[in-house]
Amino acid sequence: MSSTIPDLRQLRYFVAVAEEQHFGRAAARLSMTQPPLSQAIRALEETLGVELFARTRRSVELTPVGADLLPEVRRLLAAAQALRPLAQSLSRGEAGVLGLAFVSTADYGLLPLLLREFGARYPRVRLQLTEATSDVQLDELAAGRIDAGLVIAPLPPRHAAQLSYLPIAREPLVIAMPRDLSARTGGVPADDWCDTPVSLRDLADTPLVVFPRHLAPGFYDIIMDCYGAAGLVPRVGQEAIQMQTIVSLVSAGMGVALVPQSLRHLRRTGVAYRPFAQAVPTIETGLVWRAAEVSPVLAAFIEIVRAHAAAVGVAD
């Protein structure tokens, strides 16, 4: 038995003979003479170690093995036929896989918009989505385990040289607070969102629920600067990694939190969101990727992100 792998030419010959059930007609269909066709089928049978056809002087029929093999061979030939258009689609970024990570805050406004647009334009691209904090994303990018990430700016200096960054959205911070506390400071008790501003000075004795600084140093420092501008030193009551958890802790009455405005869409029983009475700080979310590695699929996603940033007035 030969160890040679069958080639596509032999497989096409096999299908032609199986469908015509006659070597002469199959040879005419293939625009060749009969002897080399017969030799090619013999070589294929030798390669596979089985008989594919039962031959008589007047006819040729598939053996049971040949009959079972025929649909598999047809699938292989169809897959081979699809290789060229697939390769062209991959080169244009119309097919492939994109590994994208995102911070939890992006899940409440930015991420659904980008995914909806990308999915509509590139339905054949398979997305591998991972929720992760900014620091984890930067490590995953450095290790090559994701293609891009939606992170909170700014990037730590140690990563800046190897990565490209595109700002996408800027939004103000708001205060997430227990609803009963909101009512005591002039808010409307029944509303998840109250337009009445609240000052951090009115919350000076209320613990702050925040994430550890190493997860997103820039974001953490903005929060601390808000308290500093109000002449306050925050009393950190609880720390949590995910924004969903932070808001849940606020719901449980553990303190207040400073969160991006889009997090208003994360509704929790007993939580109210209020704007700042003082100057409103903003948080920037951006797309980051390895500068030296931009696949066609990633380039297509970057194009959509850049168009969205331009539409909302966020420049590079």
From TrEMBL:
Q: What PROSITE patterns does the database record attribute to this sequence?
A: HTH_LYSR
Q: Which Pfam families match?
A: HTH_1, LysR_substrate
Per the UniProt record, the source organism is Paraburkholderia denitrificans
Which PANTHER family does this one have?
A: HTH-TYPE TRANSCRIPTIONAL REGULATOR CYNR (PTHR30346:SF28), TRANSCRIPTIONAL DUAL REGULATOR HCAR-RELATED (PTHR30346)
Record key words, sorted = DNA-binding, Transcription, Transcription regulation
Q: Which residues form the HTH lysR-type domain?
A: 6-63
Query: Can you say what this protein is called?
Result: LysR family transcriptional regulator
Family the entry assigns = Belongs to the LysR transcriptional regulatory family.
